[in-house]
Amino acid sequence: MDILYFSWVRERIGLPREVVDTNAGTVLDLVEELKAREERYVVAFSDLKALRVAVDQELTDFDASLTGVREVAFFPPMTGG
Amino acid sequence: MRIVVTSKPFDLGVEAERFASGHIDMGAIVTFTGVVRDLDKGNLEKLVVEHYPGMTEKALEVITTTAMSRWSLGDALVIHRYGELTKGDLIMMVATAAPHRKDAFEAAEFLMDYLKSRAPFWKKEITSDSTEWVSAKVEDEAALSRW
Fold first, then answer.
1. DSSP-based three-state secondary structure for A68
2. Minimal Cα–Cα distance from A59 to chain B, Å?
């Protein structure tokens, strides 16, 4: 599964994207898996309320299912315009 | 309907002229342009706009299609830049065409409200002594509830 990071999430984790081999059932499960890997993920995911998630390029919630999903992206609230 | 996500500058006059011409049944054209504003201290050196290629275009398309169906629009245009910008640069524009001005104004505001907090762009302000991601404003999220 492709995992993408943007803005300060990308900076805290230290890379813009990575391929992760995972059996996580939901976004939240994936977050827990990542946090168990290394401290930088713990830091980036310390406050989920400050984060947004997109699954296959659509905004969704952290309890969204990852069945059949190819791409997950984590980022802070958007500041366009 | 036209959506442009680009790192290059755009010409407001050319875009507005092109958008406004050729309609015989659209009595109202509204354009809004966003300009990179200096910080209160006057020390903004650069504004870096990051985006999520692929999702950005999709999100803008959904937002614009929604506006087209919700108001009586004949056409809509969204241009948004990414990359490095500096104060005074045009960062984005929206334009709407409708038979009457109320639809054109409202749809333009709707587009602005939604693309501020639902299109995947992130701004970073760089000054001589700091580098800071712009935080989303509570009122930007609250603005969506009126629609």
1. coil
2. 8
Backbone torsions φ then ψ of A61, nearest 5 degrees: -105, 170
Q: CB under 8 Å to B131, separation ≥6 — which residues?
A: B124, B125
User: Tens of pLDDT along B52-68?
Assistant: 999 999 999 999 999 99
Give pLDDT tens digits for A30-68.
999 999 999 999 999 999 999 999 999 999 999 999 999
Task: Write the residue in B54, B119, B135 that is nearest to A80 by C-beta.
Answer: B119
* Number of structural domains chain B divides into: 1
Q: Does residue A15 fall inside a structural domain?
A: yes
The whole model's pTM is what? 0.95
- Judged by a CB distance cut-off of 8 A, whether residue B147 touches chain A is no
The CA distance from A59 to A79, in Å, is 15
Contacts of A6 in chain B (CB under 8 A): 50, 52, 120, 122
**Could you tell me if residue A6 is inside a domain?**
yes
Is residue A48 within 8 A of residue A64, CB to CB? The reply is: no
Please give the structure tokens belonging to residue B134: 């712009």
A30 occurs within a structural domain: yes
